[in-house]
Structure formats: C-alpha cells, structure tokens
Design a protein that fits this description.
Strand content: 15-25%
Largest sheet: 5 strands, mixed, barrel
Order of helices and strands: EEEEEHHHHHHHHHH
Oligomer: single chain
Shape: globular
Strand order of the largest sheet: 1-2-3-5-4
Length: about 300
C-alpha cells in the first residue's frame, strides 16, 4: 500500500526482521494482518522481539527518499486488552493455532473452576489461575510432542476436563474438586517453562527445574499467602502435581498414591497421545499409514476407510 506523508495508520503486525542502524531509530520489517509488508521505524533501544505480535499506531514519514512508518505507539499483544475472538483471529492469521475456539475453551475451564466447592482447594486454584491465566491461554502444551501450538495448553487442559467428567460419572468415590483443580493446575507453569508462546524454547528454569516442580512450588507459595499451608488439601494438590507424569524419567518424583492423581495421570496420558494420532491421521491418505509418531514409540497408524 502506498502511504502519504503524514497519514496515520494503526494495525496489528508481526515483527519479521530487526535491522541494525546508526540512527536514533531502527527499521523493523513487519507483516500486517492484511499480509502487507511494511517498514516501521522505532527508537533504537526499543525492546521489540522477533516473531511477536504488536499493536502499532504509526504515521507515514519520509526517510532517505523513502516512505517509512514511524511508530508512536507499539504494544505487545500480551499487554493489550483485546477479547478472545480478536486474539484467535490474530493467532490463526500469523501462527499455527489450536483447532478450537478460544472463547469456548475459556468457558469450559472456568465453568469447572466455578464448581469447586472445597474452600482450600478453591482458594489455591483460583489464586494461581488468576496469576497465570493471561499467558495460560496463549502458550503451547509442549515444544514439539503434543499440542505444540498457540493455545495448545488451554486446549489440552479443556480436553482433559471433558475426559475426567466421564471418570467422575462412572466412579463416584472420586473427589470432583481435586480432579478439576488438579487438571487446571497440572501444567499451569509451562508459562514459566517456555520462553514464549510462539516458537517456544525452554527457559533456564524450564531446563533446570521443570513445570512439575515449578507448579508444586507455586501451590506451596499460594498456600502460604492464603494461610493454608497446614491444610491437608494443600498437600493433596502438591501430590497430584508431583505424580502426574507417573514415571521419574518423565519428571515425576512420586507415583500417584491417591485415586484422583491416578485419574489425572491417565487422562493426561490419553489426551497427549490420542490428539497426536488424530493430527497425524489427518495428514495421511486413506488406505495409508501415518508417519512414525514420537509419543507412541514411533509406531505408524493405519488410516482405514471408516476414519473421519
């Protein structure tokens, strides 16, 4: 698009390149939501990151006989208050995104959160949900193995809650509050384990501590803040987190020793594997096999004629 000097233009865009400069401003290459490639000038020391979405408020200026856009305002998407529909539209435009509706996922999770009646379990779970919820709906559930895309963490959590409803209907001895809270909390600190929600890599804390220990620690800190550190429910929540991978070589220092922890491990394991099978079958031709699937010992699955 051709801009006229002085023209104002506002848009969401993804930073694609940072260009070094000796001037007091630097040029960054930005792709707009309309798929235009524009050059935006920002202050030389501005903390802008590659591959991230920003809201830009710009004015067209002349720079070395070319027209650039000077950004008077540039705000990361994560710091701008926009509703779920706008976020989902932007994510689908610029990234690989979970195959679900963000608003529906949020409603599914928050409806279960609202059903937690135990005062200790409810207080800790809501405290941590409020602390992490902004990033929780952006981050992937993994860097490569399952739900490794924008909003994959929330998608995985919502799917686990739906699976757990079946267990709760069949096994009435299970405590609903522990099951719902454990699922909502189990991967919450993947927002600390990964460095961003786009193209995620592990942080130092992710490599040295990991989300299982990070989440257990967050529960303990929350309990202290709320004066609930001596409550048995606090210990039960920590146990669920510490045991949900079951095996030590997958990060769990303990195996499940309460029924609710076992159920959470089972639904976590099922969703992390079956979702990947479905995604790989979608890529395969009818009558053929998938590529080897890493989370299933590199087995290949047949796409039969009855497959949807």
């Amino acid at each position: 698009m051709n801009y006229e000097i002085g023209q104002k233009v506002d848009f969401f865009g993804k930073v694609e390149a940072l260009n070094p400069s000796t001037y007091d401003t630097v040029a960054i290459n930005v792709e707009t939501e309309a798929r235009e490639k524009v050059v935006v000038r920002i202050p030389a020391q501005a903390p802008v990151q590659l591959n991230k979405l920003y809201w830009f408020e710009c004015v067209a200026i002349a720079f070395k006989e070319k027209i650039h856009l000077r950004a008077d305002v540039f705000v990361p998407l994560a710091e701008k208050k926009v509703d779920d529909d706008v976020k989902e539209r932007l994510f689908r435009t610029f990234y690989q995104y979970a195959p679900v509706n963000l608003r529906e996922i949020r409603e599914a999770i928050e409806s279960r959160l609202a059903k937690i009646e135990n005062p200790v379990i409810g207080a800790i779970t809501r405290d941590l949900y409020d602390k992490f919820s902004e990033d929780f709906y952006l981050y992937p559930a993994a860097t490569k193995f399952h739900h490794a895309y924008i909003s994959g963490l929330a998608y995985h959590t919502a799917s686990m809650l739906k699976l757990a409803d079946g267990f709760l209907a069949v096994y009435p001895f299970l405590n609903v509050d522990l099951v719902y809270a454990g699922i909502i909390l189990h991967d919450l600190t993947k927002t600390l384990e990964f460095d961003s929600y786009e193209g995620s890599e592990y942080t130092i804390a992710g490599k040295l501590i990991g989300h299982i220990s990070l989440t257990s620690n967050e529960i303990a800190l929350s309990a202290v803040r709320l004066g609930l550190e001596a409550a048995e429910e606090t210990m039960l929540l920590e146990h669920i987190i510490l045991s949900h991978h079951y095996y030590g070589n997958f990060g769990s220092p303990k195996r499940p020793a309460i029924a609710e922890a076992l159920v959470i491990h089972l639904v976590d394991n099922v969703d992390s594997k079956v979702t990947v099978v479905g995604e790989e079958l979608a890529k395969a031709a009818a009558g053929g096999f998938t590529e080897p699937i890493g989370v299933l010992d590199k087995e290949r699955y047949f796409k039969h004629k009855l497959a949807k």
